[in-house]
Amino acid sequence: MTQTNSSRQPLLSIRDLSIALPAGGDRAHAVKDISYDLHAGEILCIVGESGSGKSMSANAIMGLLPSYLKPERGEILFQGRDLLKLDETTLLGMRGKDMAMVFQEPLSALNPVMTVGDQIAEVMRVHRAYPGEACQRRVLELLEFVGLPDPATLVHSYPFRLSGGQRQRVVIAMALALEPTLLIADEPTTALDVTTQAQILALIRRIQAEKGMGVMFVTHDFGVVAEIADRVAVMEKGVLVEIGTAQQVLNHPQHPYTRRLISAVPHGRARDGGHADDRTVLDVRNLRKTYVSGGGLFSKKRVTHAVDDVSFSVKRGETLGIVGESGSGKSTIGKCLLRLTGVDGGQMLFDGQDIARLSERQFRPMRRDVQMIFQDPFASLNPRHTVGRIITDGPVATGVPLGDAQARARELLQLVGLEASAFDRYPNQFSGGQRQRIGIARALALEPKLLVADESVSALDVSVQAQVLQLLADLQKRLDIALIFITHDLRVAAQICHQVIVMHRGRVVEAGPPSQIFDDPQHDYTRRLIDAIPGKTWDPTLIRVAA
Question: CATH 3.40.50.300 occupies which residues in the chain?
């Protein structure tokens, strides 16, 4: 880690910054009286739950706050200049050139109808840097610097043709185009699988070391913090509650909120044991799914074996984890089980019946027995329907009387830890963790025998994630349902699963109980996944707290 000298003039200094929220909400301020410094050559991690104000303060630095939010008081001193006193034209000239930002979702940050090369070049054209052929040379140089393969070909590609990790590298290349002295990274690895995440973290560390820039890294992942931070600032409900070196905050947290966050971090302890039911709910045998693309006049046909000869079984009351990188085939298995896509071979024996061979009409009565919890609870909930209708629509469609369905919905809301008043409210009135609880209640409304959870906690804050995981474990024990838990987070899989299968390029490369998979991996790919876990040498269960 880079050591900083507190006696030096800070690159960035925030002093008593407050940002007021519109009247009528639960809080008066998005950010209230926060102060901290960032030095050149330092990585400062800002951590906290959703709504803590960490991204709001980062957007204030860049001058990207929504129009209805204005800093109420305070200073943001960048290289001695108060950014809050500069006009928009001056700020526009500084963005990209002196300070740059890497956003959480690279696909949203990139123009889908512009090539990668044109988008990086546009940054330089706006600031009138690298004229003519020098601009194209600089684009190739940046793509090579961030570790992208074959830059000469990649410059002509569109964002949708790149993987998530490649798109994030492109966004980083854009941010580095004019070598800014301040880089703000807002949750840049949240949606990435563990190996891609490790690559992006290593890239940011290398860039920071080589360029000597100051990096503000906004995250809710304490593993990431343990991996890259020099110093850590912890925010709660708009207030800075703790700041110190990474060693101090991670191993000797002083504030109760910091301690609660760290105690919620998945610790990777295996969940072996505790399951004794031998009744098999699902038996998958030699499952195959192939995608064919291209084959036009100017392109060759491309065959992708998304699921290649996969077999596994799940018993009542058991949780099976399916882990692997993006593109490993784990989510495709979930779609096959829900009959959201067809299969090309193999069997899916559900209660002894091969659902792979059923027509849609034959399978329709069985849909209530197999339900899914989706990754993005907001996108999967109809924003125009009340929570009550969202939960009752499924049972009513299968013939349950409306009154009985509504009574059951209220019971389920209580079961997942929501108040009865949630029944008449809309999804946008809930937090991300609460929306995920609504999604779980909807899935349980049809009393399924099998739940498929596809990355259902990957986008949640660490404390909310811990609550949802505990909720799933409690519900499974109480209702004796089978659960397939699809995830790229190996620590979470170790904590909740009875059995784990590891997938790589459509095939199962290793299977067994979590203790064997994580403590004694047999396959090279499994070992690479475990080695890539951020902050794996930091054990949150061993922290020493203030008296």
Answer: 280-533
